[in-house]
């Protein structure tokens, strides 16, 4: 059950980050989930200690990590961040 919740939350976080970064049309649901999960890890490492670990701050750090991940991917693929 926890795995299903983890995938759903990762998908939501990845989807919201892709809407903000305007890459939603290029990504499918699987890539949104992957971006959300990897972004959550990045956000936990980068922003977790400063924001705190749980509750709404965990969601915020996961979202910020996903946005950072998409910005890095855009920078590598296109040479610019949208």
UniProtKB/TrEMBL annotation:
Q: Name one GO cellular component term.
A: plasma membrane
Transmembrane stretches, start-end: 6-22, 29-50, 56-76
Keywords per UniProt: Cell membrane, Membrane, Transmembrane, Transmembrane helix
So which domain of life are we looking at?
Bacteria
User: What is the recorded membrane topology of this protein?
Assistant: Multi-pass membrane protein
Kindly report the protein's main subcellular placement as a broad class: membrane
Family of this protein: Belongs to the UPF0410 family.
Q: What is this protein called?
A: Uncharacterized membrane protein YeaQ/YmgE, transglycosylase-associated protein family
Q: Which organism is it from?
A: Rhizorhabdus histidinilytica
């Amino acid at each position: 059950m926890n795995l299903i919740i983890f995938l759903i939350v990762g998908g939501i976080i990845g989807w919201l980050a892709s809407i903000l970064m305007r890459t939603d049309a290029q990504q499918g649901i699987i890539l949104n989930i992957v971006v959300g999960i990897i972004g959550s890890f990045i956000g936990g490492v980068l922003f977790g200690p400063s924001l705190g670990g749980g509750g709404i701050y965990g969601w915020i750090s996961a979202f910020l990590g996903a946005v950072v991940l998409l910005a890095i991917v855009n920078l590598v693929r296109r040479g610019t961040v949208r």
